[in-house]
Amino acid sequence: MRQITNVVFILFALLGFSTAGFAQYGSGQPTEVTPYENGPAPARDLLGVWTRVAPEGKFRSNSNWTPEPPKLTDWGQERFDTAKNSNAGGFALSETNDPVLTRCYPPGVPRIYFHPYPFEVVYSAKETILLYEYDHTIRRVYTDGRANPEDPIALWLGNSVGYWEDDTTFVITTVGIDERTWLDRAGYQHSDQLRVTEVYRRIDKLNLEIDVTMEDPIALAEPWVAETLYYQLAPSSWELSEISCSGDYLDFSSFESFLDE
After folding, report:
1. How far is the first Cα of the chain from the last one, in angstroms, to the nearest whole number?
2. What is the pTM of this model?
3. How big is the CA angle at 228 (ends 235 and 71), to the nearest 5 degrees?
4. pLDDT tens figures, 27-39
5. Are residues 130 and 120 in contact, defined by beta-carbon separation less than 8 angstroms?
6. Alpha carbon distance 10, 7 (integer Å)
7. Best label site of 65, 139, 230, 243, fewest CB within 10 Å?
8. Are 138 and 128 in contact (CB under 8 A)?
9. Inter-CA distances, 238 with 4, 136, 165, 190, Å
10. Counting runs of H as helices and runs of E as strands, what totals does the chain give?
């Protein structure tokens, strides 16, 4: 079991996304296995399991949000200079101070989107619930008309509210994101003033686009607008599996012994 766990996380840390790799995940015994056919987007509906894809010719990075770095304040630059990231190839796993890799901290928002695993959207009467396959992460986006809290309690994935702008556009705003999280895998960091806006656009039945904007007057000299993320609806037979940031993941000697085999 130790080697299996290490294989998963070595691929995650060193290789980043793999479109083919998405098909390896899922569990359970679904009762519905009929493939989906494309068609018009359903009204105000994101229900299902979504997997990230990389359309040809579109930007996709394994470590940051845009081809060019964000514009930082002096405070933001000082914090970035302390980062020892391994995802972009700068430091070995034994040297990094990436909080996800070294402490199993939750990745936070928006970094959760860099994890190469699907997420599922379900609903309750007052919220849209995002279930991420990575580390059993649950995110609640309240849709009962409340506003973002003015003095939020810091949470790993922040305090999120959402609303439908029209029948195919769902907007999420998030504040109160724990400062121990990084904005990306390259090591750009943020203050307690970070505000993240996500715009989900349901293009048709099978395709979803997500735009992310990060605003932080303490860390960012101007808003950082990410390149568009692309997702496809997984087949109805797809069920989320278990990807856990376990104690084995922190045993660097296990990484090294595996790589030597």
Report:
1. 16
2. 0.83
3. 150
4. 556 666 777 899 9
5. yes
6. 5
7. 230
8. no
9. 21, 16, 29, 35
10. 4, 10
